[in-house]
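Q: Hi! First time asking for a complex rather than a single chain. Here are the components, and I think there are two in total. Is that enough to go on?
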Amino acid sequence: HFPRHLKWDKNNITFRILNYTPDLKKSDVDRAIRNALNVWSDVTPLTFKKLHEGIADIMISFGSKEHGDYNPFDGPNGLLAHAYPPGKGIGGDTHFDEDEQWTKDSSAYNLFIVAAHELGHALGMSHSSDPGALMYPVYSYATGFPLSGDDIEGIQALYGPNPDSKKVKPRPIAPNKCDPMLTFDAVTELRGETIVFKDSFYWRLHPQMTEPDQILIQSTWPSLPSKVDAAYENPEKDIVFMFSGIKMWALNGYNLVNGYPKYIHKLGLPKTIRKIDAALHIADKGKTLLFTDEEYWSYDEAAGTMDRGYPRSIEEDFPGMDDEVDAAAFHHGRLYFFHDHIQYEYSYTYRKVIGIQRTNSIFNC
Amino acid sequence: LPLPSGENDNFLLAEKYLRRFYGLPAGLQGKKGSSDAIQTKIKEMQKFFNLEVTGNLDNNTLDVMKKARCGVPDIGEYN
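A: Yes, that's all I need. Here is the structure of the assembled complex.
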């Protein structure tokens, strides 16, 4: 909240759209704003009435550079919008930078997402430090209901819950990299970086950066599902494969490769397999190991076929390991398996576990 | 005039950013006073964004400063 917990002293709030961006149809702007207000009214007793003339509580406008409030915008990118906390006059007013490209999809800045964030300010919400919250100050794109538990708790502390008890599914809270009970969904290399997937987020570890970046999966790849089960890099092809359910996607660098998603059964897996838990690629052997429940499969990248004699038991072939794997990676001749909050370092040559650490030791926690 | 170096650009970006979002006071007197205040504000910003709190303008910190964002200050009094 803002200092002094600024809020409207009524639940029936008026808004007015003073002008429109030429980037979108008028009806699309109207819809984006109305949907953004609905996000907040879904979880509070607040109602919003549109005015077509006169002074409304929340005056919404598009402007560029200095636009009348001595709080100028800065041209394309950088500052996208700002809004004032509840109050008389300029209080509650919401301004969007007209120099941005506004869209209703993920191709540029999504007006609905930015509007929902700014209208949060107009209702009394300040910034959240949770990267999964709508009120996080940095723009990111995601589909689905945009409020996290943190946002809902914040707005309900000001206005109370929705009396109709509307059911909403809040966005998950961003996982904490140093949580001792942290588990991983998938791990892969990507051109020298390490990518760790967890829930709807991924961490990006770059050798030259001391701290990992935490980013929403859909912010980078809007067409991907919000959860990745497994991933591996084939460095010869310069491709990263990502698996979610029975589908797989391919990345070249950070760009999705055309022709995907494909079904995992195209690799030669039986139709009874509905999910791959973990995957890793052993470059010098040209083999990719795919882990499903308590078994694993071997895929020959050159032949494009599944090797004979598989699936085999994880427990029997990887002594010292658990019988299931959450995520796996191959790095400098070693296999790294992640299960629950434990990371196993496994020597393929000596066929034994040579190190056990916490899963998040990868983050220097 | 010589072109500003990348380091200078980053410093100017950081100063502008901290002034706007973290209430870094303008017109500080003396080099030492200025750098102390900037370090404190960088630390505040690093803490907010769950970055390693060093007070230094490292790559992670600059990366966050360069991202598209909302123009409302993250912390402090609202003007």
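A: Chain A has five helices and 25 strands. Let me know if you'd like any chain examined more closely.
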